[in-house]
Specification:
Low-confidence stretches: none
Shape: globular
Structural class: alpha/beta
Order of helices and strands: HHEEHEHEHEHHHH
Largest sheet: 5 strands, mixed
Mean pLDDT: 91
Helix content: 40-55%
Number of strands: 5
Strand order of the largest sheet: 2-1-3-4-5
């Protein structure tokens, strides 16, 4: 049974710690008015070793070693928080979005054993480079939709003027379930205290969107 067919509590508890924490970091970036991407590095057993979120567009104090620079992608902040002597040959880098070329190259350079992501990067989908990282998607439709809804919302909130950002317009064509879910979620930045509370609030719409997405894939 797919996670979207469970109640929220069951699905959330069943998700690996890395998935829950990466989504939580993406949510932290979203409510901080940044780009909603989160990532963690785990050992072979799935224990989170270090974490990071996209901080390229955030101002003020923060934890990321690259904060406020164009290098401050979530995955780069994770790898920048790791230590040289760690055993990367059994580590896994998890991200809410497919890593860009820079982040994929950094993971390869450091010797990370595996890279996994929850959703294709909407910008990569728009320019035709989705899937080029060689990383493995993980988690199913419900977490994909949650990750990309947060990503799109962060872009929409940051966009100047009232016009719809091109990336959302593009998503209406290539991933209509995410665009529809984004439209069904309350406008503006969420106010829930945690990603868990926010996901529970939208779980009915999220589950329905995941079911529609799976139906399209199975035809």
């Amino acid at each position: 049974m797919a996670s979207g067919e469970f109640g929220f509590d069951t699905a959330w508890r069943a998700a690996p710690e890395a998935v829950r924490r990466a989504l939580g970091l993406a949510y932290e970036a979203l409510v901080a008015d940044g780009l909603a991407v989160g990532a963690v590095l785990t050992d072979a057993a799935g224990t989170v070793l270090c974490e990071g979120r996209n901080e390229a567009y955030e101002r003020g104090p923060g934890a990321g070693p690259l904060r406020g620079t164009p290098l401050a992608h979530a995955e780069m902040n994770v790898l920048g928080s790791a230590r040289t002597g760690w055993e990367f040959g059994s580590a896994v880098l998890w991200s809410t979005q497919e890593p860009c070329k820079m982040c994929a190259a950094a993971a390869e350079f450091t010797g990370v054993a595996d890279v996994r992501y929850l959703a294709p990067d909407p910008w990569a989908m728009a320019d035709g480079s989705a899937g080029s990282s060689g990383a493995a998607p993980f988690g199913g439709a419900v977490w994909l939709l949650a990750a990309n809804t947060m990503f799109l919302r962060s872009v929409v909130v940051a966009a100047p003027g009232p016009a719809e950002p091109e990336i959302l317009t593009h998503h209406r064509c290539v991933e209509p379930e995410t665009a529809a879910l984004h439209g069904a979620v309350r406008p503006g930045l969420p106010t829930a205290a945690s990603v868990g509370e926010w996901l529970e609030e939208i779980w009915s719409a999220l589950s329905a969107a995941a079911a529609a997405s799976r139906a399209l894939l199975t035809g």
